[in-house]
Write a structure and sequence with these properties.
9 strands, 9 helices, three-stranded mixed β-sheet, alpha/beta, 316 residues, six-stranded parallel β-sheet, 42% helix, elongated
Length: 316
């Protein structure tokens, strides 16, 4: 059985106006040989035309493939050059600032959620903490970072696979201290728990204030977790102005590391959220996973948070 698709025209060289006119005149004088059907006569004419033009057609195809190879080669060369340029930009060693500019702002990562995460999520959380530490060390501004409730499974992950954390400088890793231990009646008004479950947007980071980030990766399983903890502790809540700079409808959830990186970049870009978002989450690299309830989990293509790898190139 023939596999040829009926009535599908084969690609080739389109006939010129002169050829079309010549064919029209030829048909006027065509005489079907005696004893031959019209369809057989057409088939022979078609075969004859093919024999006469097949070299021309093959040359056309060869030239077409040559141009395709040339375009592909040029495209590959351009992509290689762009990739090399991006590689050198990414790998270009950056000196750690000697004297960071004080901000009076502190961030606390509340890691009291070990029991709510599986192994892959614990790995992701440890990778995000490493990214936050790297951002803190490279920032021109002193954006304080404390990790509370650093114990149980998360600490075991660090002790086993990220043991260089013991050499980290300028970060507080508290295994005995929890968020509750930092708060009292006198300083309670200076604490803000960041959560996606609020309409209160933070327009600026205030000196002498502490901003708490929920240290959890749960793929949005535990709704209003940080909001409920803030209510329990009697704390103010807020969220970064994500909706103004990321064009996605719904409730926006950022990765823990993105929150801290955005705040560092906010200081470095003269307190401009637009520039901060463009550097940390440029539109070309942003993708959003939409849950059934409309929640948008913001992800970045250049970060594989759940990959079970040991963070590298983290300054100590």
């Amino acid at each position: 059985m023939s596999t040829e698709v009926p009535n599908k025209k084969k690609k080739g060289i389109p006939p010129s106006a002169e050829e079309i006119e010549a064919r029209r005149k030829q048909k006027q004088f065509e005489v079907i040989p005696e004893g031959m059907t019209k369809s057989e006569w057409k088939r022979q004419l078609k075969q004859k035309k093919w024999e006469e033009t097949k070299e021309q057609y093959r040359e056309f195809q060869r030239e077409k493939k040559r141009l395709q190879r040339q375009r592909r080669k040029e495209r590959n060369k351009q992509e290689a050059e762009e990739e090399e340029e991006n590689y050198h930009q990414a790998k270009k060693p950056s000196r750690l600032p000697r004297n960071q500019i004080p901000t009076g702002v502190t961030f606390v990562m509340d890691c009291d959620f070990d029991d709510l995460m599986n192994r892959r999520e614990i790995v992701s959380m440890s990778n995000q903490i490493s990214r936050c530490y790297s951002a803190m060390r490279h920032c021109k501004y002193d954006v304080g970072l404390k990790i509370t409730s650093f114990n149980k499974t998360l600490k075991e992950r660090f002790d086993k696979d990220v043991s260089q954390y013991k050499l980290w400088k300028g970060i507080e890793l508290n295994s005995e201290q929890s968020v509750e231990d930092l708060i009292n009646d006198e300083n309670r008004s200076k604490f803000v728990y960041l959560t996606a479950d609020t309409d209160e947007e933070i327009t600026e980071l205030l000196p002498d204030h502490t901003y708490i980030i929920g240290g959890i990766v749960d793929k949005n399983r535990h709704k209003e977790l940080c909001l409920n903890k803030a209510k329990k502790l009697g704390l103010k809540v807020g969220k970064l102005p994500i909706g103004k700079y990321i064009d996605m409808n719904g409730r926006h959830v950022l990765a823990t590391s993105h929150v801290y990186e955005l705040c560092c970049k906010w200081f470095e870009n003269d307190k401009d959220w637009s520039q901060a978002f463009n550097e940390v989450l440029p539109p070309r690299k942003v993708k959003g996973k939409v849950d059934a309830d409309g929640t948008v989990t913001i992800e970045s293509e250049d970060v594989e948070e759940s990959k079970d790898t040991t963070p590298s190139e983290v300054p100590v």
